Amino acid sequence: MKRSAALAVVAVLAVSGCSSPGKGSAAPASGTPSATGATGGSGAGGLGAASQSASAPSGACTIFPADNVWHADVSRLPVHRDSAAWVGSIGAQAHAHPDFGSGLIDGAPFGIPVTMVGQGQAGVKVSFEYADESDKGPYPIPRNAKVEGGPNADGDRHVIVHDTAACKVYELYAARPNADGSWKAGSGAVFDLRRNDLRKAGWTSADAAGLSILAGLPRADEVTKGRIDHAIRFTAPRTRNAYVWPARHAASSSTDANLPPMGARFRLKASVDISKFPAQARVVAQALKQYGAVLADNGSPWFFSGTQDDRWSNDQLNALKGLKGSDFEAVDASLLMVDANSARCKP
Predict the structure, then answer these.
(1) Distance from C-alpha of 155 to C-alpha of 242, rounded to nearest angstrom
(2) N or C, where is the chain less crowded by C-beta within 10 Å?
(3) Which residues of the chain have pLDDT under 70?
């Protein structure tokens, strides 16, 4: 590396990196709503994890420690060399879409619900279609756990259970309850929210990228407080058969280098004027500028996930639909990596 380039990287890292989760990263209020890899890996979050990642101090259960890559400020990171190709493949003219809100859309709840449980919630058996890449139970899933899209949904049917007593999140894909209180699902993962553990390299989770879903969901309580301090989960129509840190899994057979890998990080360009956005949309857009978005699954272009919550204002969130793919750019998040087997990032 030339000296000038090295100095540039040092300057970038001096103004980018992980930040401390503020009050906006606390637990949501009750009632709120096959692969080749570019990096190696460690075990699943808290269950058989191979890496000994830094843990958060005792106290309030935040959604991952302050030095976790989900909390990394990426506003000053250099643009990735493949940014233009990746944005073009997702859709430079495609409009962003907040895939969350309040009420019903086509008769179904809108967004990904989070079911809160506390101490004493009984664990139940979960059987998995992809058992070899799923964390074993029991999972503390109540009979009335909320399912993405509602009980009769045909989509991804994610179930996210946040155990605030144990400070863990239990996440299922294609989840369906059984009459005896047990569940069946396509895949499942458990993440210890006080640790920076990553899943084993090549392992899926309830998400195609092998990441936590909860970590990437904007929540209504965050925007009420005026700040989202983490990256946001989003989808793209076509991805490459590869993944980059901190993702652990790919979901494509394509080797086209113009397609983004799972885990690719994007941000809303600093030049995009969000000053006239309504309050809720402005908080989300500011997070997209500062913390960016993580490609976590295949789906519609620039669809950003969030919680299902009646406190969202769909009218305010609709302002985000004015954003286009060309308003985003991919960044080189590898500069934040401390260890390929940990989600901990450089300060």
Answers:
(1) 24
(2) N
(3) 1-16, 19-59
